[in-house]
Amino acid sequence: MTVPIQILKLAPAFWVSLILFGLAGCVANMPAAPSIAAPQFADTIYLGDNIVTMDPDAKDTQAVAIANGKIIAVGTQAEILRHKGATSEIIELGNKALLPGFIDAHGHFTFQAMLLSAVNLSSPPVGQIKNIEDLKNTLKSHIAAMKIPTGQWIVGYGYDESLMSEGRHPTRTDLDAVSKDHPIYLLHVSGHLGSGNSLALQAGGIGPESADPEGGVIRRMADGKVPNGVLEERAQYAVQAKLPTPTPRQASAGLAAAQKLYASYGITTVQDGAASQSAIDLVRAANAQGLLSLDIVSYLYLQKPEQILPPAGEFGHYDGRFKLGGVKLVLDGSPQGKTAYLSHPYHVVPDGQKNDYRGYPNYPTDEVNAMVREVLTHNVPLIAHANGDAMEEILIDAVAASYAKGVKGKGRSVMIHAQTVREDQLDRMAELDMIPSFFSSHVFFWGDYHRDSVLGPVRGARISPTKSALDRNMIFTTHNDSPIVPPDMIRLLWATSQRETRSGQILGAEQRIPIYDALKSVTVNAAYQNFEEGMKGSIAVGKNADFVILSGNPLKLQPADLLKLKVMQTISRGKTVFGAN
Fold first, then answer.
1. Would you give the DSSP letter of residue 348?
2. Are 316 and 372 in contact (CB under 8 A)?
3. H-helix or E-strand containing 372?
4. DSSP secondary structure string, 130-143?
């Protein structure tokens, strides 16, 4: 095309306007450039080479940024430092490790709070009691030191006949020798048995003519009639109902102390399993007053099929720091207490029992079926205590029967403890998407006793079979069942991956699992069990800023060395609740 010379001779101003017009038209027809949003400024940025996210999609994580109690960025230092503002706090981790806050997959928060004011009668390493005389002297010293008035209750906890030199429970005779002026009740370390003196039994209306309640046993003296003070399972209820109720001030102090205890072990979410309505009301009241620094998930204790449950809408969501998570059933007893319901007899049966003794259920099978069906029909999460394989079979059957009728509730039904669950039972649980929550701490605390007295060497080696669950790609969790044992998550990781007993022997080496999988059981999997995988369990954008800072990286240690780790700091929703920066 030839441009006329007249056009070329037009005034320069014309050409300028023409060019600008043309450029404007071109710009108008070009796609708009993407806007680059300014990065959100962080409240805190953590930098380090030992950030364990537990998120398989996170690669080369060197830094984490949080704001308003949430994780806003995870990545390299260069990426995350873009979120640094004028007031951002920068924390250099050095050799310390940052992990997701530990989640208590099963325990009894309000029970732990109550027992912190009771007399500690535990054996080492938790306490100092080695024999009956130690126990009696500790109680006498407590009465004298506290100047406890005549008639006031004395409550102790944690005694363990398997670790005392006499190898037996304290009886009413032992406790009457401590005091005949104070009712005394001692809770066994398992929580499934207890022992009282004469005044305590009298307060509970328990005498020679008292019949054993369903799901419980009143142990007797040699004459077979007079109660010897030891009460099993539901036989305890009559005496426990008479124990003094804490004052509001005492209850508040107990909750505060319990939270400090859990936080000192790196726990940011705590379970209150088998909670009574009064316990739930107590935690709700503390939440309303802003007294909770950790997340508390309560599971209402369903004690009978006809019990009325709260509306389903009350379950499954947080109000502040509190959530009513679901419903808990307690279906049998304790293996170390020898009340768990087994399919084969105990290796060494308790005194006074026949050679075929294998424990007993807390409820008839038809009542178990009814309670499981009631919870699942109510469409709320179910967790159920089942320790012995006979009881575990009944629970699996009950869940399967409900599922077969299309009644599944929220799913993810949990077998709490699952200590003697068999291989064939794990197969069925996997098909039903049931979650076993293993009491792995048992391997250390009672592993020798399980091998030598409770289950024998073959069954004892399989207690809390985490590797069997892992081989089936099952989601499983592990727990301490506090206050049965302290909520020590490092010891739990060690026991799960190392399986070392008190005597230093390895119990069931074939059931060991890698440290990473043990960590999953108290982070990612525990969040899933609580239906909280979208907000907890790993260090990922959008989740709660719940962290634990350890003295070292557990993934760089051998299982035997895990006990060297220390909890340096615990952060819940972005706020430090234990330790200091």
1. S
2. no
3. helix 365-377
4. -SHHHHHHHHHHHH
Burial label for 349, CB within 10 Å (0-12, 13-18, 19+), is: middle
Cβ(541)–Cβ(73) below 8 Å: yes
Q: Is the dihedral of CA 548, 552, 555, 561 positive or negative?
A: negative
The CATH 3.20.20.140 portion of the chain extends over: 252-533
d(CA 381, CA 461): 31
Could you tell me which of 280, 277, 295, 299 has the C-alpha nearest to residue 375? 299
- The fold of 118-240 is Diaminopimelate Epimerase; Chain A, domain 1 (3.10.310)
Q: How large is the C-alpha radius of gyration of the chain?
A: 29
What does the alpha-carbon distance between residue 9 and residue 226 come to, in Å, rounded to a whole number? Answer: 126
Considering the entire predicted model, what is its pTM? 0.89
Q: How confident is the model at residue 2 (pLDDT cuts 50, 70, 90)?
A: very low
97-100 and 547-550 as β-strands: parallel, antiparallel, unpaired?
A: antiparallel
Distance CA 313, CA 190 (A): 33
Digit-coded pLDDT (tens) for 127-141: 999 999 999 999 999
Residues of the chain with CATH 3.10.310.70: 118-240
Q: Are β-strands 435-438 and 267-275 bridged in parallel, bridged antiparallel, or unpaired?
A: unpaired
The number of angstroms, rounded, from the C-alpha of 563 to the middle of its chain's C-alpha atoms is 19
Cβ-contact 474, 438 below 8 angstroms: no
Buried b (16+ CB within 10 A) or exposed e, 466-490: bbbbbeeebbbbbbbbbbbbbbbbb
Amino acid at 196: G
Q: Which residue has the tokens 């009740």?
A: 185
Residues 67 and 41 sit within 8 Å (Cβ to Cβ)? yes
| Average pLDDT of span 359-384 | 97
Domain 252-533 has CATH 3.20.20.140: yes
The helix or strand, by DSSP H or E, that contains position 424, with its residue range, turns out to be helix 423-431
Residue 335 pLDDT class (50, 70, 90 cuts): very high
Q: Give the confidence band of 573 by pLDDT, cuts at 50, 70, 90.
A: very high
Say how far apart CA 63 and CA 49 lie, in whole Å.
Answer: 8
470: which 2 tokens? 């892992």
SS3 476: coil
Cβ(271)–Cβ(109) under 8 Å? yes
Distance CA 194, CA 115 (A): 14
